[in-house]
């Protein structure tokens, strides 16, 4: 992986991040980096909008009504969650269950908490809507250098349209795995801020095993300090519409992130993830690996992977990939990698994206050894997804996910 | 005693240019414990015969039959054929990402036996077979055929042959791509499997060199989709000297 292997490389103009949200409608979040938009000539040259230039605001009124044509929404069934983009959300506390862990505090903190807004700000209307309503934020604060794990489960959100805010902070030099487990029903828009202090080592797993009716729109904003490492894992198996969009800013020199994703869309499910990695410091490193399987009529997945290597990010190394395995007719997988490089000094930058059908030769090989077609399919799908599971690094969770994948496979057999 | 009978087998494939006839009336009977070598020029249909026996969906049987101890193999699914005792060592084994050799072997053995093999003896058997085939222990935890060299893939096929213990095995050019040492090791594996289980073998090859290690009872010359001549092992030597020219003349004229 060298700079030369980068599949797309745009010498886009660097524009400083706006410190205050613009309010004029003309600067609304449209356009996408990598697509060179020029004016019609009357206004002269309009610079390419880099991903970091996207309009941001915590105020829902700053965003126009969602039409579904916006870059951030154009792949999503927006008509099915107007309550989350345009309605009044319930921002009250909700019930959580947790496995207590020493040196990890879990508490509700007021909106005035200094950490709020430090990792990122909403870039779309549902996120801003949630930002405006939450009464208290759920704060998970990790300290202590020893390895530890905590699971925070939400299973009783119900079908009220909600807005929520979570902060996950890893203090300098701390280490932990934080699992956010989601089950039951939900109509939820939320923002999750992940803040890593210097040399912290944090794994965050967002596990979506919602009921079939649930709608979940999440934006995760991570800011990674000097020499800190974030492993971020999105596992989406259950839910009607699940959109988990992680944005990671490699803010400190030597910061490192591994972004993993695993999804399995059944008939009628919409599973989406818009991943954004912003290399904003020298010697930062990122790896993105999302893998998904689709089976059943109208099973739909979307993966967008934006990597921006900023002008401060000399000596960075990045690679992103998305692979989808299509198991039946009637599915649709979108896979859109974008790479934008503003510095000439990079160690490596590349991306790969592939969506393939089930390989009949693999199936034949396994069957020719006596393995039934059903079992052979399971082996291949499990094998395909296992690569991601094995990188999570939490044996208990890995075992649990293997079972969950198993259940998905059995579920699809019945259909 | 088991017997595999191939009777007047006609097979075609669909190509972009339409239906292409490949096998044109193959007749062959293999008894348990017998070794039959099939030799023939490129494109004569040897792999087609092998794949048709195994049940690859690409090949369309127009007429004829394949009987295993009297039961019609052509009516069986691919996996049922394997469970009935047929095995195909493939010319080009495919990679199965994410599925380890260990997991694959255990799953296959369980499928074929109808129950999971007793864990202790199974692990011992796998280790022993791997050692015999000079396969490093690390192969067990690697994904099936992923990143294997050509020779390693062939060993992995013979490993399966030894462990799954079929009644009849078709080896499709298991010898190609092997150096002398590997050829010996693989041949020993095949001979061991035969000594242990008394299986019948259909050995497809271009070269006589593997026949120095695995001694055929019968040699068949395969040309243009059917068996053009058969004989004992002396026929193989003759083919080595003379090539296939004398068989090719008639079919090349038309
Ligand atoms: N899918 C296909 N489409 C077109 N032609 C095919 C297809 N499959 C097989 N054939 C043709 O059928 C013929 C027989 O092929 P087959 O692989 O059985 O030959 P073979 O005797 O095994 O040759 P080799 O010694 O090269 O392995 C060849 O001419 C081949 O090109
Ligand atoms: Mg062949």
Description:
The complex is a heterodimer of chains A (415) and B (254). With 415 residues, chain A is mainly beta. Chain A has two domains: 54-357, no CATH class; 361-415, no CATH class. Chain A is built from five helices and 18 strands. In chain A, helix 4 (373-389) runs antiparallel to helix 5. The model of chain A is unreliable at 1-47 (pLDDT under 50). With 254 residues, chain B is an alpha/beta fold. Chain B has eight helices and ten strands. In chain B, helix 6 links the parallel strand 7 and strand 8. The interface between A and B is medium-sized, with 24 and 29 residues. Magnesium ion binds next to helix 1 of chain B. Residues 13, 15, 20, 22, 40, 42-48, 58 of chain B line the site of adenosine-5'-triphosphate (ATP).
Layout of secondary structure:
The complex is a heterodimer of chains A (415) and B (254).
Chain A: H1 82-85, E1 97-98, E2 104-110, H2 125-133, E3 136-142, E4 149-154, E5 161-170, E6 175-184, E7 187-196, E8 201-210, E9 215-224, E10 229-238, E11 241-250, E12 256-265, E13 270-279, E14 285-294, E15 300-309, E16 316-326, E17 332-341, E18 346-357, H3 360-367, H4 373-389, H5 395-414
Helix pairs in contact in A: 3-4, 4-5
Chain B: E1 3-15, E2 18-31, E3 35-39, H1 46-54, E4 59-68, E5 71-72, H2 78-84, E6 86-89, H3 101-113, H4 119-132, H5 150-164, E7 168-172, H6 180-197, E8 200-205, E9 218-223, E10 226-231, H7 233-242, H8 245-253
Bound molecules: adenosine-5'-triphosphate and magnesium ion (MG).
How many separate structural domains of chain A?
2
Question: What's the architecture of chain B, going by CATH?
Answer: 3-Layer(aba) Sandwich
From N to C, what is the helix and strand string of chain B?
A: EEEHEEHEHHHEHEEEHH
- What integer is the average pLDDT of chain B? 93
Order of helices and strands of chain A: HEEHEEEEEEEEEEEEEEEEHHH
Can you count the beta strands of chain B? 10
The largest chain-to-chain contact, stated as pair and per-chain residue counts, equals: A-B, 24 and 29 residues
What fraction, in percent, of the residue positions of chain A are helical?
10-25%
Shape of chain B: globular
InterPro entries (chain B): AAA+_ATPase (IPR003593), ABC_transporter-like_ATP-bd (IPR003439), FeS-cluster_ATPase_SufC (IPR010230), P-loop_NTPase (IPR027417)
Domain ABC transporter (chain B): 4-249
GO molecular function (chain B): ATP binding; ATP hydrolysis activity
Family (chain B): Belongs to the ABC transporter superfamily. Ycf16 family.
